[in-house]
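W.,

You were right to be curious about this one. When I first looked at the sequence I had no strong expectations either way, so I just let the prediction run and decided to look at it fresh. Below is the sequence, 837 residues in total, followed by the output.
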Amino acid sequence: MKVTLFDFQRDALHQLRDKIVAARKFASTDNPQAIAFSAPTGSGKTIIMTALFEAILDQPDDELAWPLDWAPQPDAVILWVSDMPELNEQTKLKIESKSDKVYRVSQLITIDAHFDAPQLQGGRIYFINTQKLAVNQPLTNRGDGRQHLIWETLTNTARAVPDRFYVVIDEAHRGMTSGRGAQAAQTLMQRFLLGHPEAGLVKMPLVIGVSATPKRFMDLLEHAPHTVHKVAIPAEEVRKSGLLKDRILIHHPESATTAEMGLLEEAARRWNQMTLAWGAYCKDEQEATVWPVLVVQVDNGTAQQLTKTNLADALTVIESAIGRRLHEGEAAHAMHDTGDLDVGGRRVRKVEASRIDADKNIGVVFFKTSLSTGWDCPRAEVMMSFRRAEDHTYIAQLLGRMVRTPLARRIEKDAALNDVHLFLPYFDTQTVQGVVASLHNQEEVPPAETGSSRELVVLKRREGTEALFAALHELVTYRVNAARAQSPLRRYMAIARSLTLDEIDEEAWGHAKAQIVIWMGERVAALKTSGLFDAAAKAISHVGLRTLAVRNGTSVTEPEADYHIGASSVDIDRLFEEAGRVFSHGLQMEYWRAHAERDATDVKVEAIVLARNAARMAELEGLAEGAFNALYDQHKKAIHKLTEQRRSAYEKLRLATAKPSEVPWHLPESIDFRRQPSDPLWERHLYVEGNGQFRAELGNWEAGVLKEELADPQVVGWLRNVDRKPWSLEVSYETGGDIRPMFPDLVVVRKVGGELLIDILEPHDPSLADNFEKAVGLARFAERHGALFGRIQLIRKQSSAGGEHFARLEINQAAAIKKLLLITSNPQLDELFANLP
């Protein structure tokens, strides 16, 4: 694969593999098998399926860690079935672009009206859409010299290779058809499952249903006899991955208006701003430039006109907003009922929806309803719709296709690049809620936040806070469950390799390999010295045989002499590869090459014995853990200077541990924030809106504590530490054996005698069950990192003779830490608060 799969995609791929192994053992036309693969929109289903096809037809990528007994089927046949030709074309293009197995044109075949063959050929991926399977189509009728109906071709294939004929039914990218069209497509899809004896079609023996939710494919399976195997991707995993935009901002008038061109002008300005912002970001980060697209949904037409929307006026408004004429080819349309358009002397070219994303010259796209649920264009950042409010469900469906991030990751540096903008001139406040509700249907995974642009804002760093942010960047934070745990050996090799490739430490990779080989040799020598090696080696290199003699004509058996034979080199090579999976990064081969002067089998057996010895492997992993930490600490300042994408790769390695590790705290240049226009104003916040103000509705305790803080002139800044943002300050704590994150409410910056002190303040309700556990978590944090901070306080409201006040338990003191680490219940914590002066 040309791309690295996310952890959740890899998990889904491994589950698909296991289900396929189980299903193809029994697959036949009499015992059909079906795999229901459901994953929300935006999860990368086609990429996962492409990786699966590579593994079936060729070999899985080494990094996917597939079992050694996986058997590729180079003569397998794959048939991809959808209900629209555009969807097949898009899938075909995506497979071509993401696979590094270089599928040739001859391997990716679109079945057209002229296709005529007795059987589908092995080693091919075919594409067909249900429209070509209708009763009036050439594929399903004899004539014009046709020798084989498509149903006969499929039946012959199913009977010839039932365990290697994979029919993929694409329910996830179903077009926006309705009524008779949708029913006809579903009926044709069901024929693959139920068979169609009248046409000579048998039940397909091995079907994979790809759908956004389990219900879609399971509805097709309602009367099918298939044994069903299920694989599902959780929606939350997709949201956490950064594959989807964080927010959809809906711009609309307070009441429905006819000032549609005014909103189009504002949409064009926003598109221009996004274009400039992406250009600056990609230049700074050395990325290929992202060119945003403005998508304009025009009104329907009449018998006499293409659309009721005045395209000439629309183009004039767009050009006025961006301050230039559109380039030749920059404006396009995806309306099916016409070709290229001449609009006031400007050419608006016709383009197929599946080609929009790849054509970087396209900046503006006009369409009606042709951009279906299967359309993908991560570059589509701004949408304007001339449609009326009754179309909110369709608009929500289309918008669900625009939430993919162009770089397949969240942008840290500029929060505005994680937003999608929708302009709706004919929607008022109430009808906008209909769009929001439609976005939260069971098939889509909407961004974490969807709402009016009046509420969703972007905050930038307050002017004059450079020194404050520099001080904050000297701090650390935790990230709980932010990355899949990896072995220390794997992490050490990965960071060493990255440091060398990023030209930070050119010797790191080679040194790491040489160092690990030395450690491996020392562990092998220790096994030999302890007397544990010989027996373990003999179990690998020799096979014990026992002979029983059976007297002819009787059931009497007599044991004969036992003896041993040498293990086959094939068996040892297989065990050697298995050991490589334990070591990772081909370290078993590094060990073998380092001892090239010795007997090859002896060296392989040593690696196998070591990989199987838990105690010595634990020692090896411990050494690798220490080496990883040393390398990270040595180069963390250089790592911080890398591009955002590369820096995040190192942070992911740092976090890929069973227990959370601290990482440097990086606050971005801007953050997204939700507030109401009527929320209270607060001064000295580190991030502000464009007008220099910060509004937020805080809880009663937070507001009370903050007022006390802001009364102190030493307080020069503060941060509302929003829960679960990529930039949030995070502290880990244990509860019920699990490690969870907590997000202290307030981070305060004080200037004391010329020194900047950073405080953590956590107002916390004492009635909550996790109160003492979070207190212990803060104490452990203070024990490890207290020197970096000023105050670390757990705060609650208490009554006293003078009335209610905020009681502050100062945690960042040795005596307090010692007491807190001993508590095991809320009453013990209550006692500490009761004894405060």
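Here's what jumped out at me. The mean pLDDT is 88. And, maybe more interesting for your project: The two ends are 64 Å apart (CA to CA).

Coffee later to discuss?

I.
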